[in-house]
């Protein structure tokens, strides 16, 4: 029993330290405050905007909010082979997954395609894997989307949520023009650190009882 007690202490210490980091949540999921420019970290706790050309933009816009007074507007206006988007990092531990949801809509996107993804990032900030959802396009009326990441792989310390639009070449005018809107984005990490602590303590308690 002495050995088991020591293991309990060690396990307990590790799990409690991860639990105190808290569950990952999206900041500014309603896009009511402006995005950060692409000027470097921090990449968690706020959205960072990026754009591939002067005619592409990622901004908060009052044109088409779902709730509140503004939403995220990802827009490309008559540009081939361009892109624009916004991203935010969520803290994660391997084995957890991210459940992402929100509302989106589009105003007549001509050749503007949407990409949603979660990038797994290591402690150095480098992407080493990703989960993508391609192809689906929202309609003019807001509808709900979901993206489930699956379990974060070994080495992951963050899941980077990315919303982006892109265009390719060869679209005749007025092609490669359109805006896709996002609002009320939420994310949860599963299992939450608190519940994983309870589950682990339950397993250890069961093991301790069996060993008696
Ligand atoms: Ca909003």
Report on this model:
The protein has 212 residues and is of the alpha+beta class. The protein has a single domain (21-154, 166-181), classed as Galactose-binding domain-like (Jelly Rolls, Sandwich). The protein contains two helices and ten strands. The protein has helices at 2-19, 193-211, and strands at residues 48-51, 56-61, 71-77, 83-91, 97-110, 113-121, 127-134, 143-151, 158-166, 177-190. The strands form two sheets. Strands 1-4-9-6-7 form a five-stranded antiparallel β-sheet, with no helix packed on it. The N and C termini lie close together (8 Å). The structure holds calcium ion.
List the topology elements.
Elements lengths: L1 H18 L28 E4 L4 E6 L9 E7 L5 E9 L5 E14 L2 E9 L5 E8 L8 E9 L6 E9 L10 E14 L2 H19 L1
Antiparallel strand pairs: 1-4, 2-3, 3-10, 4-9, 5-8, 5-10, 6-7, 6-9
Helix pairs in contact: 1-2
């Amino acid at each position: 029993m002495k050995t088991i007690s020591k293991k309990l202490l060690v396990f307990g210490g590790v799990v409690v330290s991860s639990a105190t980091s808290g569950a990952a949540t999206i900041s500014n999921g309603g896009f009511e405050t402006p995005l950060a420019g692409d000027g470097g970290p921090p990449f968690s706790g706020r959205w960072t905007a990026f754009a591939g050309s002067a005619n592409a933009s990622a901004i908060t816009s009052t044109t088409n909010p779902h709730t509140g007074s503004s939403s995220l507007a990802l827009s490309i206006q008559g540009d081939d082979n361009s892109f624009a988007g916004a991203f935010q990092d969520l803290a994660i531990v391997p084995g957890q997954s991210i459940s992402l949801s929100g509302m989106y809509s589009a105003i007549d996107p001509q050749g503007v395609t949407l990409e949603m993804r979660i990038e797994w990032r290591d402690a150095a900030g480098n992407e080493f894997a990703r989960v993508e959802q391609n192809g689906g396009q929202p309609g003019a009326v807001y509808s709900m989307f979901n993206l489930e990441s699956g379990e974060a792989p070994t080495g992951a310390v963050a899941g980077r949520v990315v919303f982006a639009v892109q265009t390719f070449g060869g679209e005749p005018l007025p092609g490669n023009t359109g805006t896709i809107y996002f609002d009320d984005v939420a994310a949860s990490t599963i299992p939450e650190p608190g519940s994983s602590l309870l589950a682990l303590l339950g397993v250890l308690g069961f093991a301790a009882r069996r060993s008696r």
